[in-house]
Amino acid sequence: MISKNTICLWFNDTAVEAAQFYAETFPDSAVGTILRAPGDYPDGKEGDVLTVEFTVMGIPCVGLNGGLAFKHSEAFSFQVATDDQAETDRLWNAIVRNGGEESACGWCKDKWGLSWQITPRALTAAIADPDRAAAKRAFEAMMQMGKIDIAAIEAARRG
Q: Secondary structure of 93-106 in the HEC alphabet?
């Protein structure tokens, strides 16, 4: 059963592969119902996988194999709050080493073009520090990073 509010992600015939990767990589994630097209459609044939229901960290999603018409962009991203450097490294590396690409400030893209923000809670706390000078130092350190280095953020925060 699809949730009342579900994120629909457009893929080019790789929705099942993406859903399986997310389910294997992120906690509280799973692949659900796979629906096959009951007839031909512009970018597929009867019997092709049309949609796959899945969850990513408890968020209900559906992957739609819609063809090449649309691409993912940074206008949509999953933001993942991590608890420590080990979790940050594991998730970042899983995405990047599976055909993804690094970006800046904790952002990366998976091989399907979906953007992810792997954001340590320590970073969020540092840039929200009531000591605005400490927050600025942490923010400036983050602006120089790809994957977030929590120790470097904390060092910058301390000055």
A: HHHHHCCCEECCCC
